[in-house]
Amino acid sequence: QGKFTLLRDTRTDGSFLVHHFLSFYLRAGCKVCFVALLQSFSHYNIVAQKLGVSLTAARERGQLVFLEGLKSCLDLLFGEKEPSGEPSPLQFLSTSNLKALFDFVRTSLTPAEGDSWQGPVLLVDDLSVLLSLGASPVAVLDFIHYCRVVVCSQLQGNIVVLVHSGEDGADEENELLGTALGHHSDLILWAEGLATGFCKDIHGEIKIIKRLSLQSTEQDVVQVYQYKIQERNVTFFARGLSAAVL
Amino acid sequence: EEDKYAVYSNLLFKYFLAEGVVCGHDLFVASAMEPPDNILKKLPAPLLDDTHRNELREEATPAKSEDSQDSMKIAWRYENLPKMEASPTTSTKFGHYYDISKTMSPELLQSVKRHSFYLPEELSLMPKLKTWNMNCGYASLLHSIQKVICQEGFDGSHPQKKQKNILRIGIQSMGSLLWGDDICSSDTPEDIHSLTKFLYVLRGLLRKSLSACIITVPSHLIQNKAIMERVTNLSDMVVGLESFIGSERETNPLYKDYQGLLHVHQIPRLNSLICDVSDTKDLAFRLKRKQFTIERLHLPPDLSDTVSRSSKQDLAESAKLLSSGCGAMAIGKKHLDF
Hints:
Chain A is of the alpha/beta class. Chain A contains nine helices and nine strands. In chain A, α6 (about 100-110) packs parallel to α8 (about 135-155) and α8 (about 135-155) packs parallel to α9. By secondary structure, chain B is an alpha/beta fold. Helix content of chain B is about 30%, strand content about 15%. Chain B contains nine helices and eleven strands. Chain A: Pathway: tRNA modification; 5-methoxycarbonylmethyl-2-thiouridine-tRNA biosynthesis.
């Protein structure tokens, strides 16, 4: 509880980690606020069903609060003015201020009367999109900081965010974001494409870095595995011991 | 990603639109340099044999007749239209062949609905809209696309329309100076977010409607590599064309039969944990008089002075015409004859 997990992917698609955490926390009975910026609701729903969870059902019973970025931005740009006067969570698209997004997260996860969920969880896919939409890295870091204060410290919940890097790591703002968040994370899961190039049987390598303590100078525990993604599952194995090789 | 002189990327752009005409999809063409009508006049002619052409003519007429009884005929038409739901259906018959030495007949072109957006005209008509600090060319293009999607019912807003159709959108040379964007012309552009914001909204529009889109970008002119990384992240499929014109590879005997290389940077991973990745990543393209071909490139054994190569002629694999897609129309994995 109260943990901050950073997901990173470089040269590969690490979204399988997002799908995993989503279904994991829903199955555990947590209240999840999912800020889904990159894909549509039906995409996540279909994959979640393969993993055994129905997002529509979770949303209906109030367990899942889903912010579908792609849909909300259309409403914001092409829709009529909101009569209720509530600012859209994607307000930053016009004002470069992420406060409305933070308010959205806070109201979604603050427990209401009669809520019996296990613990709040904030999931973001993916943070790099905020940079593409005009937010500065500092603004994004501030947003995450505020979320941590509310979700991790006050509500004893967890946060999982994904930062995606491209082929060359040429996006400096993005790298800055990833590194800064990495320093404050309790757990980092870093999926990378193989340095030697594409391989059919091994989709990539994942590095798991567990922070034992943020204060002391104890060494982080680092583990490395290789993985292969399948239809409903991901198999992990030690380096060099892929089923194709043995 | 355009090749250096946009020769081959424009060709692929035209193939995408031509396929749309032959399949009966609606077209939306946007460009800042060449008037869309001119682009449409130069589409390659499809290779239809006589029996095929007769079927097409038959199809055009009984549009209003009973829909349930003529199921065979209508099913033929719909065979190539993907459904916007769970798993993408791979239709067995896919794609058509074209002869690039001939242009498409105006009658065939007239058979589909065409929408166009020509920037110099649009800017003079519409006052400057500053939306979200986005470049006004992009902003007005977004409004134009959204209007077409809404009015023609591609987003399901006219349920009484019996026949569903697909909108194929083609946008040329995004990011170039002609669109009013300086990411291609300046080392430190004033606004690096316009293109990515545009792509994000476009992605939203495509996800919410029965449409597919191809965009060409002169990425070789963009100095700031972060921008292309972000563009790639926001796209479903990214293909780069590298032509040998003017490079030292032109004289390399290894590439003597080809005009350039095709790099697949990203393929769509939608509705699934995995994606269908092909075995080979080395693709080269060749432009013959009548055809544009993409083939697997492999190094021959270095036996003698002369380099001989066997190029496999595999059958075209079904490209995935997903109802939402940014970037190039899916190119077959092995060998695709257009």
